[in-house]
Specification:
alpha/beta
């Protein structure tokens, strides 16, 4: 892997006071004339000058493809972060079920896929600091099952669609299977919702913001209950490249502090208040 040096500037302003000695003509340095830089931070990427990012690219509003271009909240955010490190982003389509072992194995540099930080995943990858707070949602086809108003109405014989390898699947297995429900897994969330439209499953459990976006074009589907699971998203990196994680964390903090995060957030979640921890400082 090629080594790339990134100089992350931390503008710490301070006053220098010069005491006049033999040279009475010397002027004192005005406040703000001196800036310090953090030491050069070295990190590695698979290809010099490029951040290869693995993603499913089928999970709006976080990441998807429109007109041949990658778009979404995760896309804009990580591309902004990469640009501050002097890196171009190259997107790599990956299967969410194996995406963490893939980045840990060096198939790409990072994962940006609306990924919840969990203890289990942290055994495989190194996560950035959190960048998004999320909840799960229970979605039903109100034309097929108008009597299901929430999780409490799920029971024997109901089939719950989930995306493979997600925290939604884990939550459904822990909470709905004991109520008698059966779990059906799908490669991607859109396929689960399509099956819900066709009547193949009773309900879908999936991240709330993505569910709300996907069902806008699927008449009859409705979020009947938001499920607070205290989930936080993070970008994932190989545990063998902690320097890259550190560099990305530094620019993430900058993006939040200077208000760029807020601009991107409001672009994709208009009318939703930015959580306090992600507001400009």
């Amino acid at each position: 892997m090629a080594t790339r040096k990134a100089r992350l500037l931390m503008g710490v302003l301070f006053s220098l006071v010069l005491v006049a000695g033999a040279c009475a003509e010397e002027e004192p340095v005005e406040p703000g004339d001196g800036e310090t830089e953090s030491p050069a931070l070295e990190f590695t990427t698979i290809q010099e000058g490029v951040l290869q990012v693995g993603s499913c690219l089928d999970y709006p509003p976080f990441e998807s493809v429109e007109g041949g271009d990658e778009v979404g909240f995760d896309v804009d955010l990580i591309e902004e972060m990469a640009s501050r490190l002097g890196l171009e982003v190259e997107w790599v389509t990956a299967d969410f079920d194996t995406i963490f072992t893939a980045v840990a194995g060096g198939e790409f540099d990072a994962v940006a896929a609306a990924s919840t930080i969990t203890e289990e995943r942290e055994q495989v990858v190194d996560f950035s600091e959190p960048y998004y707070n999320s909840r799960q949602a229970l979605v039903v086809n109100t034309e097929e099952t108008p009597d299901i108003a929430g999780v409490a109405d799920i029971g024997e014989g109901d089939i719950i669609g989930v995306q493979r390898g997600t925290t939604g699947r884990a939550w459904a297995e822990d909470n709905l299977v004991p109520q008698g429900a059966e779990i059906r897994t799908f490669q991607g969330a859109p396929a689960a919702f399509q099956d819900l439209t066709a009547g193949g499953v009773t309900a879908v459990v999936n991240d709330e913001p993505s569910s709300a976006e996907i069902i806008t074009e699927l008449p009859g589907l409705e979020i009947v209950e938001a499920i607070d699971t205290d989930e936080k998203y993070g970008f994932a990196f190989s545990p063998e490249n902690l320097e890259l994680t550190e560099a990305m964390n530094q620019v993430l903090a900058e993006v939040i502090a200077d208000g760029t995060y807020q601009e991107i957030f409001q672009r994709y979640f208009p009318g939703v208040e930015v959580p306090p921890e992600f507001q400009p400082s």
